[in-house]
Amino acid sequence: MMNYSSRPAEEPAVRARDLTVVRGPRTVLRGLGFSVPHGQITGLLGPSGCGKSTLMRAVVGTQAKVTGTLDVLGHPAGHPGLRTRIGYVTQAPSVYDDLTVRQNLDYFAAILDPGRAAAARRAEHVTRAITDVDLTGHADTLAGNLSGGQRSRVSLAVALLGTPDLLVLDEPTVGLDPVLRRDLWQLFHTIAAERGATLLISSHVMDEAERCHRLLLMRAGELLADDTPDALRDRTGSDTVEAAFLHLVDEATAAGRTKETTR
C-alpha cells in the first residue's frame, strides 16, 4: 500500500522513500530512497538485471506491487494527471511496423492531444519530434523497413511529443553506433537546458555516466550511490565513474561479508 506524506513547497521531480518491489519470491527493489532534481539528466546505472527497468516502470506508474512512497512531479506515481507530462521509452521499440514514421507519430499525437482544434498543434509537435531525432529523411518510410537504431529513435520521438516535463528513457542508446549515441546525448542535454525537462536515463554502459548531471548507481536491487559524477570520483578516489562504481561494489560486498561473520 503506497502512503504519502505532506510535501515541501520546493520538491524534486521524483522522490522515493523506502521504495520496494516484490515479484514472487524475489525482492527486486529493496527499500530505495533517492531524489531526481528538476531540469537535469539523472543517470540510472548498473548491470543488467539489477532492477533499473523495474524502477523506471514504478516511476511511470506501470509497475505492480510497489510499496513505500514515490512522488513524481508533485503527484503519487501513476496519477492520471501525469499521463501527458511524462514521456517513456522502453527498451523494445514501441512502434507500428505497418505505419510510416510520421503516421506513427500522428497516431500517438492524436491520443495525447485529441480533437480537430488541436490539429495544427499536433502537426507542429510531430514535425519537431521527427527533426529532434534526425529522421526527417525517413518520415515517410514504413517503420518495419527501418534499422533497429532508427526504430529506437521513432520511439524516442513519440516520447518527445507534447514537450513532456519528465522523460524516462530505458537504455535508449543500446545497440547504437558511437556517432548516433553522441548525437542523442547532445539532444538530451538540449532538452534539459533549453526546455527545462527532467531526464531519467538508464544504461549499463559506464562511460555514459560521465554525461549525466547526477547518478543513481544500482546493484542487485539496492542503491549504492545517489550523487554527482565528480562527488563519486572524489569520494572513492577514482579517476572514472566506472572505477568508482567498482569501488562501491567492493565496499558493499565486504560489508555483506562482515554482517555474515558477525551473526
Automatic annotation (TrEMBL):
Q: Output the Gene Ontology terms for molecular function.
A: ATP binding
Q: What domain of life is recorded for the organism? A: Bacteria
Which keywords does the record carry? ATP-binding, Nucleotide-binding
PROSITE patterns recorded for this chain? ABC_TRANSPORTER_1, ABC_TRANSPORTER_2
Record-annotated ABC transporter domain positions: 14-245
The record's annotation in Pfam families points to: ABC_tran
- Keyword ATP-binding attached: yes
Q: Which PANTHER family match?
A: ABC TRANSPORTER G FAMILY MEMBER 20 ISOFORM X1, ATP-BINDING CASSETTE, SUB-FAMILY H, MEMBER 1
Q: What's the name of the protein?
A: ABC transporter ATP-binding protein
Q: Which organism is it from?
A: Streptomyces edwardsiae
